[in-house]
Amino acid sequence: MQKLIIEARVNEFMRREEGNPNVPYSPAEIAADARACREAGAAILHFHARKPDGSPEHSTESYAETVRLVRETSDILVHPTLGYATLDDTAERRLQHILAMAKTPATSPHFAPMDMGSVNVDRYNEQARRFETTQLIYKNSTETLFYFGEEIARAKLKPYLVSWNIGFTRYIEAFLEMRRLAEPAFICFCLTDNTWLGGHPGTLKGLQAHLDFLPNNHACEWTVVNFGGNLFSLAGAIIALGGHISIGLGDYTYRELGFPTNAELVARIAEMARELGREVATPAEAAAILGIDLAHFEQQHRAA
Ligand code: ZN
Known about the structure:
alpha/beta; TIM Barrel; 38% helix; 17% strand; binds zinc ion
């Protein structure tokens, strides 16, 4: 079985006030966290740029500063989020910070995300039985996805394909059939426990429904997120089934575990993998599994 790729999803838009004080905000905090996660076994860092007070940051400068600090001190592979300021931003505005960073060797990320469909993202309050907002749609038109696919390939980055439900996975299969995506495809199943209802539940059934629709005629690697919930109840199954793990304080506070750090979550997953007989991939090994040519990034460095 392939070695296990662990991705640290360090912050998303999670706030420390929600319970866990270890969520990194500033570029320096994110870089320090990335280094600790790498030492604990993570091969990929996923982050959202944040202002020092934790509010969302959308400037290319902040993203570039974060990637520069991370890459100066660690070989972890870098996966930034899209830079939208609103859910209605154009495809060009959402991707422009990533394309700008990819031009400069020291700030180039390795991945760029593509959510392969559209979904309602209003928060649902289960206790109060009401939605906290009623208008939020995460929109990714087919035309937008064509644009992302072309530009991400042109920048020689790896598309990180997010699937919220089976319809998204069918889009991934169609894009592979059309040769608009290269193989192996790297697919992230975004389960959504609590709060968001747009994904499958964070249960074995929710995961299995995704796996039943993996594009069988194409080379695929898959990882699993539980956005809004605890991923540990599924981690053993994911590891045994040959999937990869994407975990972090961006998704959930992990209060049951005493509000750990991101690196502590990663270390727990790495330990679990070893107990189940599966080795943990280094960033270089993860790049090889996913078909990322690290020499391209090194050559960029040499040229610089
Ligand atoms: Zn994210």
